[in-house]
Structures are given as structure tokens and as C-alpha cells.
Task: structure prediction
Amino acid sequence: MVGKGVVLSISILSMASSVGTADPVDFPFIDAFKKSDLKKWEIAEYDFDHPHFDTDWRKQNVVFDNGGDEEAAGLTLTVTPSKVQSQSKNRFIGGSIRRKIPTIYGRYESLIKPAKGSGFVTGFFTYTGPFYGTKHDEIDIEFLGKNTKQIHIAWFSDGVLTNKFIDLPFDAAKRPRLYAFEWLPDRINWYVEDELIYSAKKAETNLPITPSLLFANVWAADPSIRQWAGKTEPEQSSEAWFGQVKFTPMQTLFSAEKQAALTKIETTAIVDPASLE
Result:
């Protein structure tokens, strides 16, 4: 999404394949993006026609385990100039992955070194929407490459966006750091290096309540939204790096008593993953 003036629905980033039914939605996981983790993620490969994106999705822009380099293990997503004009006529190709199994309440965290460069956007977020037969609910951590001394946090509840830019005391593109959000029935907490930077409370705003899929991506913005994302140069390229990604379900984060208090808040039912295909 792009601030107050323009809203990008992340439904357009969804990939046309089944969600799968291997794990329950509250199953914890830790992925270090080894080759063996590939089967747990869907990698985007398609031309993308959207007025706010100047990016098609390509598998070649997604590298697990850094090609086998153990000292630089993790996930590398690149955004590079397109060598072939696609039907969408986008000038760039980028990398996007999503978890195959939906999750809901808990803590989502990753080591992230976002892409640097005007016009580039790095995202780590949960999403579900009409493509999956649900309303649009979403929680975001994003970095704009034009200013990586800020973090962009946002959430959608039934398609309605709320977002904030928060200044950081460092340049996020200099080295990987730990970023996280806790999605709970009564609030969403965002963290940088385990320090709470913002809390959105149900008493003050509507929150997402629908099981969602976890995404990571990097993309080039269309020149029409350069006021928000900045302007890309035709031969510009960059990359984002993600280290270990971890999901901890709410029942692991809190005691049974605390869980019971939280889940008294009205939510939608946790759906069978098969129903989100």
C-alpha cells in the first residue's frame, strides 16, 4: 500500500495455486530458507498488470540458501531491470514468496535487510482477501528504498487501511536486524530488535481477524506513485535479504489464562486451510 493517498491491495500479489492442508493454522514454524524449505513456500512466476507496480514476478529473483553458501544462508529477493518486454510492459522483475499454509494469532518475525534505492519496496506481511474467498485482512512491515531510516507499518481490516511511518535510529539497509509483529485478538504490536515501536489496539481501531498467508517480497513502484515510493532509474537494481523466519502461535506466547482472556474478543472462526484455496 502507498500511504494515505493511494492504497494498494496486496491481493494482487497472491499466487494462483492451492493453499494446501498439511498443517493446522496454529502450527509453529522456523524457516532458515534452506533448499529443504522450498516445498513450504509458493514462489511467484507471472506477468503483473497493475497501475501501481512496475514489476513482474520471476522465480529467478528468489534464491533460497544463497545458492548453497552456508555462511550467507537465508533468502535473497532481487529486483532487476527486465531484459524482455512482457505483456504488462513492466520495466522490472522482482521476487515474491508466500507461505502455503495460513496462520493467525501469534508472533511473526524475521531478520531483514531491505532493498536500498528510490522506487523499491520491501515487504514482510500477512494477507488474505477475495482471491482466497475471504475479506481483505492484512498486517504489514514495509521499507521504502528511498528512505531506509524509516519503517512503514500498516494493517487492513475488511479492506480498510490504517498506516504509520516510524523513524528508525539507524539505516535498516546497512545490515540485517530483527523485525516482528504480534497479531493478537485485542491488538497488534510491532517490534524492532525486540523493542516495541507501536501498538494498535482493538479499543481504538478495527483489527484483522481472518487467518492469512505470510509473504515476503521486493518490487519496483510505477512512476505514477513516485511521490510515495520515489522514482526508479531504468537500469537500477537492488536486493533484500531475509534470515530465519519464525512464527510462534499465541498459545505458545501466553499462558492458558491469558489466552482465554484474549480469545473472548469476538473473531471469525479459524477456517480450514482447504477453504482458502
About this structure: The chain is about 5% helix and 40% strand. The helical segments are 226-229, 250-253, 256-263. The longest helix spans residues 256-263.
